[in-house]
Amino acid sequence: MNWSEFGTWGRRVADWAQNYHLTVGTRPVRAKTKPGDILNALPVMPPETPEDMEQVFQDFERIVMPGITHWQHPRFFAYFNANAAAPSVLAEFLVSAIAPQCMLWQTSPAATEMETRMMDWLRQSLGLPDGFCGVIQDSASSATLAAVLTMREKALNWTGNSAGLAGNAHLRIYCSSEVHTSVDRAIWVSGIGQDNLVRVPVQGDWRGMDPAALEAAIQADIAAGLRPAGVILCVGGTSVGATDPIAACLDVAARHDLYTHVDAAWAGSAMICPEFRDYWPGIEGADSIVFNPHKWLGAQFDCSAHFLRNPDDLVRTLAISPEYLKTHGHDGVINYSEWSVPLGRRFRALKIWFLIRAYGLEGLRTRIRNHVAWSRALHDRLAATPGFEIVTPPMWSLFTFRYAPADTSDLDDLNLRLVNAINDDGRIYLTQTRVDGELAIRFQAGQFETTQQDVMMAHDVITEIADRLARDKPL
Ligand code: PLP
């Protein structure tokens, strides 16, 4: 295939994509293939000679599509959504066509300067004060790793990158048990070691870190000759939306001069609605904050907004500038590769520009407000349905529940069977978690094309399949 045929195929792909999005709600949400089905349908050997694009395209529909779980399905209520709103897909199409590698200002000034401006648009949208700046990372995991490396370097007086950790007191990082596993991974990769990740107990409905317990843990570590290095807080944890009391925990960290990072990967998008910011007063005291526009805001994966109160610490930790990367004659420009672990960078800011312009902040807020309202309405209906109990209350658009009819001996087994049967059915897609050791089913609404009817259909499907389970097999 050559570029002269690209337009024909590009139009065909655009039509296919439009039809896919308009009809995706008629497909089963989760792929129904068995392990190995797709692998076995793919030829073992690569072709030696060119193949016809028509055949390639037909095989894409025949082999690939049955093995797709439809993340853009309006009844995808599992995990957290990874929305790809139409304007952001268009921007990604353009970026794929131009294919710039944006590691340095001079390798595409438009990408760097658009990123600077878009991070500031996002800062204003979330109500963060002037002075915060930021960078677009590939994932929240990368942002958290960058923050943990910064904690390590600050605590070691910038000697860790060169001399390693040996010979120093153990560094200690504090978080609750509700943070995402990307925190554990960052601790492993940084060399700090899992044993030095201190889990501070949580309390209350929000399952947030107890600030007094944080203070006590830090003091105990200092007394034991260990070296506190940083605190990681979460706003909207993955399992049940756990949220730490930001202001009180940041106060503790400030008393001990500790670097702080807030993971708001999912819930950060909701902060574009002023009424949902109750959960993070005091956020302006954080050193580093991450949220994923590629989740609830509609910017196609990947796109992770990483805000910094002062980027100097991060840049001092990560910047490395061999001669082949120097940009002589352009002093003072931002080279965003110095703000992240990977060197190469995609042009991610364009999709934010398209997205915000196409919907306006008000359009984005309306979607998020609807998701929260509809999810709460579903919560109320399930809470009033005999046999069901709410396990954790709504945090924005996420809550957990359990099917607990009277005289059931093994609720974990029953609820696992329920969630599996729901997902095999295909009309909706849910996932499970554990709350205080017991299985609970998660519900969250966040897909851009979801309607109130889609959310309410979840009630019908859940109760219908629960009844069937109860009929088919003694509970
Ligand atoms: N933090 C939270 C709270 C999450 O829910 C997730 C993923 O769902 C992550 C971090 C990791 O995000 P990413 O896939 O961008 O690394």
What would you say this structure looks like, in words?
With 475 residues, the protein is α/β, with parallel strands linked by helices. The protein contains 15 helices and 13 strands. It has helices at residues 6-23, 37-41, 53-64, 86-98, 109-126, 140-155, 160-163, 181-190, 211-223, 246-255, 293-297, 311-318, 349-383, 411-425, 452-472; strands at 133-137, 171-176, 197-200, 202-203, 208-209, 227-234, 259-263, 288-291, 304-308, 388-395, 398-403, 431-435, 438-444. The chain has a seven-stranded mixed sheet with strand order 1-9-8-7-6-2-3, with helices on both faces. It has a four-stranded antiparallel sheet with strand order 10-11-13-12, covered by helices on one side. Strand 6 (227-234), helix 10 and strand 7 (259-263) form a beta-alpha-beta unit. Helix 4 packs antiparallel against helix 13 (349-383) and helix 9 (211-223) packs parallel to helix 10 (246-255). The N and C termini lie far apart (59 Å). The structure holds pyridoxal-5'-phosphate. Pyridoxal-5'-phosphate (PLP) binds at residues 80, 139-141, 180, 182, 234, 237-238, 263, 265-266, 292, 304. Pyridoxal-5'-phosphate binds at residues 80, 139-141, 180, 182, 234, 237-238, 263, 265-266, 292, 304.
Task: Please describe the structure with a list of short key phrases separated by commas or semicolons.
43% helix; Aspartate Aminotransferase, domain 1; binds pyridoxal-5'-phosphate; globular; Aspartate Aminotransferase, domain 2; 15 helices; dopa decarboxylase, N-terminal domain; alpha/beta; 475 residues; seven-stranded mixed beta sheet; 3 domains
